Every structure is written in C-alpha cells, then in structure tokens.
C-alpha cells in the first residue's frame, strides 16, 4: 500500500492492473505471417484482411474456426496465410518487454497487489501463460476471450474490478493503448499510458508506489554451462536462467554475489566438472537490464536477479570456476 500526492490530492494505492501485450510481453503479429510469405508482403496482407478488426473479434471470444472459415470463403486463395496466424502464434510473442518484469518484482516487494487485464483469445492465451513464468506473479488475470468482451468496453474493466474487489480510486492501470486508458480513466482509475518501462516506473515513483531504484552493488556472477555460453556467443542468444530453466520460464536470470557462488555450484552443478562451467562476471551499474535483489523463497537469502538477457558484450569477465578466488573476485 502506498500514499501518494496526485493532481493536488492524496490517494492511497493498493493495486496495479497491467495490460499484457506490449506492456509485459512483446507481441509482433507479423511474425506469424512471415512464416508463409516474404516480410515485405505482410503489411499489405494484414491490411487486406483488416487484421486489427479481425483479431479483436477473436479477442472478444469469436470462434477461431469460424473466423478463419469466414475469411477463407472470401479469399480462398489466401487460405495458407489466413491460417498462419493461429498456427504460428507462438512466434508472435517474441519475449518479455524490457524492464517490466523488474517493475513487477519491485511492486511485489512493496506489497502492491497486481492483476492483469488483457485482450487475448482464450485458446491462444493458455500456451503463452504456461510459457512465461513472470505471469505467475499476478494475483489474477482476466482474459477478454474468456469473458466474451474486449477492451475498451467498460464492462471488461468492471469484471476485473468486481472479481478482485478493486477500488478504482486506489488502483493504477497500465496499458499501451490510448482508448483503453481513456476507458480506465473514465472509471476513476489512475492511468499510465505505457511507452516503455522507464517511463512507467518513473510515474509509479511520482505516484508513491515505488522509490528510486538503488543500484545493486557489484560485481555479481552467473554460473553457465560452458558449451551453452559458447553457443550463445556464436549465435547471440543465451536463453538460460539457471540450469535446465529458461529465462522465459523463470522471468529473470539467477545471479549470485561472490560469497554465494560456491554454494550455488554445490547445489545446482555438483555433478559437472569445473571445466564444464564458466562463471560470468557482471557489473549491475553497466547492464542494460535492471538487477533486483530478491529473497530465496526457501531460505530467505537475498540474491541478485537480472531481469533481462545476459548479453556477451556486457560480461566483464569469463572466469573458470577454479580461478574463482582471490583477485578474480575483487
């Protein structure tokens, strides 16, 4: 709970309602169509089928089989392309929006309840929910396709407010769509029209929900399997949070302070030889993604969590585990 001076008055905020696509998760619908046609033809095709309107109908609960059949009846020569969106939908969700996960973690630490309100067809949402562990931090998620109503219809907002007993005067709504923000504002919610995580966080600071972010002291360290790290440097994509757990599944990359590294090695990598591992050294102040200290749920010990990718160009040293002593840690 937080008290905040806002627009000349005092408000106490207890809840934040997040949109998902474009705020928490990156959504690039053109990626599905790029699987079946050249990228430079996708925009024209999406205009041809009036994609935004067509997609919104499914967000509001329209049956996908019927929706595809209706389009195919009008454009039979476009069958493969029409069916591509649902078939390749997983490729349209291209990751987490940089920085938002850290905000969610900080709000959780501040005791602010968080729920999500999303325009998303029900059958396409469920695989995405399983894919991204960050979504488990929400106290609840209202999905338009399950309710048969889509934003900006005020009835969908009423559902989330009533279902979670949210007082609009004590809630902040974050969305990247101005029409949705306008509806939320008309219902009495404080609104943040999302243009990026830094902008949204600064507004949350102004509203009193968060304080200024303190840089975690460094260096911090991440243990990686050497083969996985070498592959990441070659291909530019390191997908791991910790052993056998991806960044998408966890929501952040597990890191450690220097004195924690040996215990992490024993607990998670004891069956691997030292030369199968590499310890990546990182400087939190120089990273493009934020680092948040969070308590381990079992021990309560605080660990640094990186809410973004481990980028090869941001690693300050690659240390063999056998060298992880003395001057190497200074």
Task: Provide a short characterization of the protein structure.
The protein has 330 residues and is of the alpha/beta class. The chain has helices spanning 30-33, 39-48, 51-59, 64-74, 79-87, 100-109, 122-131, 144-147, 154-163, 178-186, 197-206, 226-235, 247-250, 261-269; strands at 2-6, 9-13, 15-18, 25-27, 93-96, 113-118, 140-143, 171-175, 190-193, 220-225, 240-242, 245-246, 253-254, 277-282, 291-295, 302-306, 315-319.
Shape verdict: globular
User: What helical percentage do the residues reach?
Assistant: 25-40%
Structural class: alpha/beta
Q: What number of structural domains do the residues give?
A: 3
Assess the beta-strand content as a share of residues: 15-25%
CATH architecture of the largest domain: 3-Layer(aba) Sandwich
According to CATH, the homologous superfamily of the largest domain is: HAD superfamily/HAD-like
Gyration radius over CA: 22 Å
**Assembly type:** single chain
Low-confidence stretches: 4-8, 326-330
Mean pLDDT: 94
Q: Biggest β-sheet, characterized? A: 5 strands, parallel
Describe the structure.
The chain has about 325 residues and is α/β, with parallel strands linked by helices. The chain folds into 3 domains: about 1-25 and about 95-205, Rossmann fold (3-Layer(aba) Sandwich); about 30-95; about 220-330, Protein of unknown function DUF952 (ADP-ribosylation fold, Alpha-Beta Barrel), CATH 3.20.170.20. It is built from 14 helices and 17 strands. It has helices spanning about 30-35, 40-50, 50-60, 65-75, 80-85, 100-110, 120-130, 145, 155-165, 180-185, 195-205, 225-235, 245-250, 260-270; strands at about 1-5, 10-15, 15-20, 25, 95, 115-120, 140-145, 170-175, 190-195, 220-225, 240, 245, 255, 275-280, 290-295, 300-305, 315-320. It has a 5-stranded parallel sheet with strand order 7-6-3-8-9, with helices on both faces. A 3-stranded antiparallel sheet has the order 10-14-17. Strands 13-16-15 form a 3-stranded antiparallel sheet. α7 (about 120-130) links the parallel β6 and β7. α4 packs antiparallel against α5 (about 80-85). Mean pLDDT is about 95; it is low at about 5-10 and about 325-330.
